[in-house]
Amino acid sequence: MAAMASVRYSIGRAPLYTDVNLNGTVNLLEAARGNGVPHFVFASTSSIYGKTERIPFQESDPCNHPLAPYPATKKAAEIMGYTYHNLHRLNFTALRFFSVYGPRGRPDMMPFMVTHRIVNDQEIQLFDAGQMERDWTYIDDIVAGIVAAIDRPLGYEIINLGRGEPVLMADFVGIIEELVGKHAILSTPPAPPSEPKTTFADTSKAARLLDYNPRTAVADGLARMWDWYQREILSS
Predict the structure, then answer these.
(1) Is residue 164 a contact partner of residue 201, using CB atoms and an 8 Å limit?
(2) Where are the domains of the chain?
(3) Which one is catalytic: 17, 49, 70, 156?
(4) How far apart are CA 233 and CA 188, in angstroms?
(5) Taking the model in full, what pTM does it have?
(6) Which CATH class name applies to 7-234?
(7) At what angle do helices 218-229 and 110-119 cross, to 10 degrees?
(8) Among residues of the chain, what percentage have pLDDT more than 70?
(9) Residue pLDDT, tens place only, 144-158
């Protein structure tokens, strides 16, 4: 959970991301091995899938073409996790998170940034005029999946944690506009090569192994985030 995040920020910073995300994970794996910890749950990312043609994204996809250093280091850490499982019998579960959002989200992520810029009449870059899709997953659903994984050692597993319902970015921004009561000021450049057209989780494996059942629709989750934003950001 303490990794260097953000696909776009990782571009041009491969040494930093390798040091923190891969070497940091190996340090934790060594600590687990050395202290008899039997089970390791790893925060991975849907960005690993890149521009896969398999829709929805399934964990059996080889994921050999990450589009930026961030997902590349997460993929490498998943592989290292298998090595520790093979050699040291460490249970290792990699959870691939899909576009997590909600109250207290990072300011550099799209949900907070769009909300903040609409409120403050600032321009928003909406790649490909909002015709990209993301599988937005509310934080409470992600936490439920993490807790379930912690409670269930499974050997070595990779598991998607998403909503399973991709949303057009144009519609996503539209929901926030309606909540805020203002129109966004948009620029619509082409998407950079680090950005896939779609993310879409197949959550059947999570349902089978973790009893995972995401409950929060995007409109409801954004409404909760907007309530938090008004309470904690606008009033401060």
Answers:
(1) yes
(2) 7-234
(3) 70
(4) 27
(5) 0.96
(6) alpha beta
(7) 60
(8) 100
(9) 999 999 999 999 999
